[in-house]
Amino acid sequence: MLIVTTSKSNVREGPGLSFPIIGKVQKGELFSSTQMENKWYQIEHPSGKKGWIAGWLVEERNPNEKKGRITVDGLRLRNGPSETDGVLETLPKGIEVNILGQKREWLKVETPYGSGWIHQDYVNIEKKSSPKEIKLQKPPSKIGVIIGDQLNVREEPSLSSNIKNQLKIGDEVQILGLYNEWVRIKTEQESGWIHQSFVKFENNRKDSSTPQEEVVILYNGTKIREKATTKSSILAFVQQGDRYTVLSKEGDWFKISLPYQQEGYIASWVVSYKTVQKKKQARKGGLKGKTIILDPGHGGEDRGTTGVKGTFEKFLTLRTAEQLYQKLQKAGANVILTRDHDSNVSLPLRVAIAKIYDADAFISIHYDSIKDPTINGFTTYYYHNDDRELAKQIHKGLKQSISLSDRGVHFGNYHVLRQNPQPSILLELGFLSNKKEEQKIITNPYQEVTTNGIYNGLRSYFSK
């Protein structure tokens, strides 16, 4: 048996660095190897493909290894067999570990948090016993959200069990029960086991809430009509992937809600239809205790737009978000940044963060650009009609605080809004393509009044 010792290790088509990558595997995963060549091992990737992994990325382990259970809370997992070696993690009491080897009084172990060394005095080594029936404990909720990326779903509640599938951060699962530190789950495809550390129980979700119906557009250029007939006037053309709330059904047509409080009809044969949970409604009582996600646009290799004077949007959005973070935190809000440094965060992950934390508001922060260097001003976007009030209140707060041209509140078909189940808006806080405006928006006074405006808008939204 092989255990992967490095996060996101590459699996290649052949035994060498020159071969193409077919996928990645995670630290702590176990594989059988049928062949070895030039210090490379052939394994079966979770996708089912056969590939090769470098010997320096894995360790061989004994298939008859022992198991143990941690007896103290906060036990240090070290990168070597001594008290002078660095601490990798602190382990909670009661978790199960696989014992991979021993050096003097130190044990090499595999844990849900990675592999390392612990002192033998703080682990109970379990004797092997015959398989017994697993009795599930009642879970705290029936729904969970995955908070670990590429999380392994296993056949049995054990790190040495076979991997059945992988889940992504933000995926929803049905919770069937608990067993020690493991969670029995069910997805659309199958059931299995995941470690409790990587799931957030949805305690706040009310099963009695009324779901809403939604259609998803299947083809680009689909027509929205004034009435439920192909002979009716065309109101708009919409694109593949767009989503609309269903108001009613008339024969083979759906009556749907459109931006700006309009309504229209779309044929049932050009959409997919599903039931979704209603958006979270604003909780009154001010900012204290509210969970607010601040999403600084772009980051890492995605620098966003670049200003006339060379300003990178990715740095300016983070600067604005960090200043707003401080103000909201002082008001007692629970504030989370989708990124707190120059890193690339995918759009689905930004949405997943809002979902995981059950956000009361999600604010995506951007700066604008256009070919015409004379265009200027700030704009607020929303996608779902439920989010229009949030957009209006924050836009009003900005209008009262900053002196840029007011470009209004508009419908915006952006991924972080369209796919977001939480109240969400996107702000464009000025044009970096306008030299005069760029000079203004990068100043400390502008950042101060802008974050004040957003802060005041959020305060108004939560007090209504």
UniProtKB/TrEMBL annotation:
SUPFAM superfamilies: Zn-dependent exopeptidases (SSF53187). Keywords: Cell wall biogenesis/degradation, Hydrolase. InterPro entries: MurNAc-LAA_cat, N-acetylmuramoyl-L-ala_amidase, N-acetylmuramoyl_amidase_3, SH3-like_bac-type. The keyword Cell wall biogenesis/degradation applies. It comes from the Bacteria. GO terms for molecular function: N-acetylmuramoyl-L-alanine amidase activity. Its EC number is 3.5.1.28. One of its GO terms (cellular component) is outer membrane-bounded periplasmic space. Gene3D superfamilies: SH3 Domains, Zn-dependent exopeptidases. The keyword NAD does not apply. Residues 1-61, 65-127, 141-203, 212-274 form the SH3b domain. GO terms for biological process: cell wall organization; peptidoglycan catabolic process. This is N-acetylmuramoyl-L-alanine amidase. It comes from Oikeobacillus pervagus.
